[in-house]
Specification:
The chain is about 40% helix and about 15% strand. By secondary structure, the protein is of the alpha/beta class. Helix 6 links the parallel strand 5 and strand 6. The strands form two sheets. An eight-stranded parallel barrel has the order 1-2-3-4-5-6-7-10. Helix 6 runs parallel beside helix 8. It has one domain: Divalent-metal-dependent TIM barrel enzymes (TIM Barrel, Alpha-Beta Barrel). Bound molecules: magnesium ion. Magnesium ion binds next to loops.
């Protein structure tokens, strides 16, 4: 595995959609692997990924789980379909998360992550309680593999999330901080949020975006190439240094057009290199 420097630049990439050589060609040597719900995770898959990472001398910080049936079309759809909130898929997604943890362990990866969805603010709400208990069980499972469990940020304000993390109360629980999501979901200023959540940060995404349109209730904001949205990447990198974060900054770009996506990510590598100093 490569020896990484502080604030090493990495990439968030996806099994099947991306390959390690293609991601490496952006000029990065570490990242986070996303795994869609329909990707088979057996011993063969684990061995093949393990060999590829060794061959390419590529470090994986996190395995991210996405689940069958999730849609990010707009905020009400996210609320209905994403993460651990929909009761009908809760048990199935819990099992899948254990599979992700086992798969990550087979690759020697020390963190798993996912969007758990919109957690209600009311701690007596049945969904709040069910999701908190599920998060606790997943933390305990991941702990047996020596892994942390990172919740992707953005769908709730920083203080709500901090309260949930404290309430769940597991030492290996934290967040994958995504500054753009705070903007896309209209949940608050990401730099201020990073100050509030600083001690909970396990890993970060470097992503940019603009706020939701005022005239379309329920619409999400628009993702932008890094440096062209409302996050303020210079402020973001500065704040990461200020809170003492030393892990990797994983560039995330979620557009369909693959070539444009790689072009935007390559540009993002250059921007972050400059900002990191
Ligand atoms: Mg993200």
């Amino acid at each position: 595995m490569p020896v990484l420097r502080d604030l090493e630049i990495g990439a968030m990439f996806w099994a099947v959609r991306d390959t390690v050589p293609r991601i490496k060609s952006l000029g990065v040597r570490c990242g986070q692997l996303g795994v869609a719900g329909d990707v088979k995770l057996d011993g063969v898959a684990a061995r093949s990924w393990k060999d590829e990472l060794a061959r390419e001398d590529f470090a994986l910080a996190t395995v991210f789980a996405a689940y069958n049936g999730e849609s990010y079309a707009d905020i009400p759809t996210v609320q209905r379909t994403v993460g651990f909130i929909p009761p009908a898929t809760r048990a199935e997604r819990e099992q899948r998360t254990y599979e992700i943890s086992d798969f990550a362990a087979a690759l020697g990866v020390k963190s798993i992550a996912c969007h758990i969805g919109f957690v209600p603010e009311d701690e007596k709400h049945a969904d709040y309680i069910a999701v908190r208990e599920m998060v606790r069980r997943i933390c305990d499972y991941a702990a047996r593999h020596g892994q942390t469990f990172a919740l992707e940020t953005g769908q709730e304000p920083a203080r709500t999330l901090l309260h949930f993390l404290n309430d769940a109360g597991r030492p290996n629980l934290g967040i994958n901080f995504d500054p753009a999501n705070m903007i896309l979901y209209g949940t608050g200023d990401p730099i201020e949020a990073l100050g509030i959540l600083g001690r909970q940060v396990i890993s970060v995404h470097a992503k940019d975006g603009d706020w939701p349109p005022m005239d379309k209730p329920g619409a999400l904001g628009t993702e932008r190439p890094l440096g062209q949205g409302s996050v303020g990447m210079e402020r973001f990198v500065g704040k990461l240094k200020e809170i003492g974060y030393t892990g990797d900054m994983n560039i995330e770009r979620e557009i369909e057009d693959l070539e444009q996506r790689y072009a935007d990510m390559a540009m993002a590598v250059k921007l972050l290199e400059r900002l990191r100093g």
